[in-house]
């Protein structure tokens, strides 16, 4: 069992706490970089929430989806 598998097992059932931690870490990065990489940070937050949290949102309260045309 890899470290990543162990981490996923530990986080099961704690999705809301994972989301809070990801948000807090992203906010810290935004503060430290003075918002220079906000778009990249938001993308990383969405991916982490999708993989380990409750599914993630794209900052709009909506789940990330395909680009609108």
Structural Rg: 13 Å
Number of domains: 1
Q: What's the helical proportion of residues?
A: 55-70%
Provide a count of the helices.
Answer: 3
**Oligomer, anyone?**
single chain
Strand residue content: under 5%
What is the distance, rounded to the nearest whole angstrom, between the alpha carbons of the first and last residues? Answer: 42 Å
Low-confidence stretches: none
Shape: elongated
Structural class category? mainly alpha
SSE string: HHH
Largest sheet properties? none
Number of strands: 0
Detailed description of the structure:
- The chain has 69 residues and is mainly alpha-helical.
- It has one domain.
- The protein has three helices and no strands.
- The chain has helices spanning 3-11, 15-32, 38-52.
- The chain is elongated, with a radius of gyration of 13 Å.
Short description:
The chain is mainly alpha-helical and 69 residues long. The chain has three helices and no strands. The protein has one domain (3-52).
